[in-house]
């Protein structure tokens, strides 16, 4: 079993959400954010005109393009989604994203190395028996936002040429 952490590629700037904290209180976990969002959401953003919208956004919450959401549905059809429209008024463009309610698994092994404040994984080790059959999930038991997917999911994403995704393999014990 091979698993990978999924991140937004730092080479591709993420949109800046102008009104996020007027709609969402700071310090919320992804689960709390998902619960507080309505089914349809609208956010004002800033994104340089030359930059295209990527297939995944990791901040302020994990959201994905329609194509990436379709891939999640193939591997985990039970996952529910909420919807977000991102409006860039200055450049007169918008994009539509979906916010998945990924399962949260507390599956980090005690051999993992985590920062003192519990927000950064220095060296991650997953417990195989706690993952079960999940193809994509959020890592629980840690303050930071970590999305983990199995090899099949990541290979499918790469074949579909998902834009803006970076992966890092994580050890499974």
Give an overview of the whole structure:
With 173 residues, the protein is an alpha+beta fold. Helix content is 20%, strand content 35%. It is built from five helices and 14 strands. It has helices spanning 20-23, 30-36, 66-75, 128-131, 151-159, and strands spanning 3-8, 16-17, 40-46, 56-57, 63-64, 81-88, 93-100, 104-105, 113-114, 121-123, 125-126, 136-139, 147-150, 165-172. The strands form four sheets. Strands 8-12-13-1-14-11 form a six-stranded mixed sheet. A hairpin with a 6-residue loop joins strand 9 and strand 10 (121-123). The longest helix is centred in the middle third of the chain and has 10 residues, at 66-75. It is globular. It starts with a strand and ends with a strand. The model has no long low-confidence stretch (mean pLDDT 91).
List its traits:
20% helix; 6-stranded mixed beta sheet; globular; 4-stranded mixed beta sheet; 173 residues; 5 helices; alpha+beta
Quick description:
This protein has 173 residues and is of the alpha+beta class. It has helices at residues 20-23, 30-36, 66-75, 128-131, 151-159; strands at residues 3-8, 16-17, 40-46, 56-57, 63-64, 81-88, 93-100, 104-105, 113-114, 121-123, 125-126, 136-139, 147-150, 165-172.
Question: Mind sketching the topology for me?
Answer:
Layout lengths: L2 E6 L7 E2 L2 H4 L6 H7 L3 E7 L9 E2 L5 E2 L1 H10 L5 E8 L4 E8 L3 E2 L7 E2 L6 E3 L1 E2 L1 H4 L4 E4 L7 E4 H9 L5 E8 L1
Parallel strand pairs: 3-6, 8-12, 11-14
Antiparallel strand pairs: 1-13, 1-14, 2-3, 4-5, 6-7, 9-10, 12-13
């Amino acid at each position: 079993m091979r698993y990978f952490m999924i991140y937004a590629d730092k080479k591709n700037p993420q949109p800046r959400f102008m009104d996020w904290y007027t709609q969402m209180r700071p310090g919320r976990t992804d689960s709390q954010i998902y619960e507080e969002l309505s089914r349809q959401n609208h956010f004002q953003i800033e994104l340089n005109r030359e930059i295209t919208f990527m297939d995944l956004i990791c901040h302020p919450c994990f959201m994905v393009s329609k194509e990436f959401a379709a891939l999640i549905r193939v591997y985990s059809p039970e996952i529910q989604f909420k919807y977000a429209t991102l409006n860039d008024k200055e450049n007169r463009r918008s994009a539509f994203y979906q916010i998945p309610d990924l399962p949260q698994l507390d599956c980090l092994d005690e051999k993992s190395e985590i920062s003192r404040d519990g927000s950064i994984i220095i060296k991650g080790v997953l417990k195989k028996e706690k993952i079960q059959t999940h193809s994509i999930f959020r890592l629980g038991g840690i303050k930071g936002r970590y999305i983990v997917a199995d090899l099949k999911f990541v290979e499918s994403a790469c074949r579909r040429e998902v834009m803006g995704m970076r992966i890092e393999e994580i050890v499974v014990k």
